[in-house]
Amino acid sequence: MASGSPSTAEATTTYKKKPGRLVLSNSALKWIPKDGPGSGAGVVSFECSRLLSLFSSREGGPKAILKIGVKAIPTGPPLSDPSPSTADESHNFAFTGSDPL
After folding, report:
1. Model confidence, pTM
2. How many angstroms separate the Cα of 24 from the Cα of each of 35, 51, 74, 79, 91?
3. What is the number of other CB atoms lying within 10 angstroms of the CB of residue 13?
4. 44 three-class SS
5. How far apart are CA 31 and CA 70, in angstroms?
6. Domains in the chain and their CATH numbers?
7. 78 CB contacts (<8 Å, ≥6 apart)?
8. What is the predicted pLDDT for the residue at 37?
């Protein structure tokens, strides 16, 4: 993917048991609910610079799961013992059908 190109990759997924699309672009990773925002689930979006880790389920398993680690956004002065609200986040996406990235 060349820098500055509008390339994207999309896949049909579920997030917190809600159907939607996972979209990866040059700048962000977004999950968009199938029926749009306000349909009981909101859009989940992370800048690519916040992505820390990526794990996938074993190939050939009953379903494909993608686990993404995301760096937390600092909300105040740095603390020696970070509270759960400033901890890094983990999000799990399940791929549906035969629509992998």
Report:
1. 0.71
2. 19, 12, 24, 32, 15
3. 26
4. strand
5. 14
6. 10-73+85-95 (2.30.29.30)
7. none
8. 75
- Bridge partner residues of 47 (DSSP): 28
3-state secondary structure of 85: helix
* pLDDT string in tens for the chain (101-residue length): 445 556 789 999 999 999 999 999 999 999 999 987 777 788 899 999 999 998 998 888 778 899 999 998 777 666 555 555 456 888 888 886 654 44
Q: Which residues contact 30 (CB under 8 A, 6 or more apart)?
A: 22, 23, 43, 44, 45, 46
Q: Report the residue count for the chain.
A: 101
Pair 95, 13: CB distance under 8 Å: yes
Query: What pLDDT sits at residue 58?
Result: 85
In 1-101 the beta strands, taken as DSSP E runs, fall at 8-15, 18-25, 28-33, 44-47, 51-56, 64-70, 89-95
What strands lie across the sheet with 51-56, from one edge to the other? 44-47, 28-33, 18-25, 8-15, 89-95, 64-70, 51-56
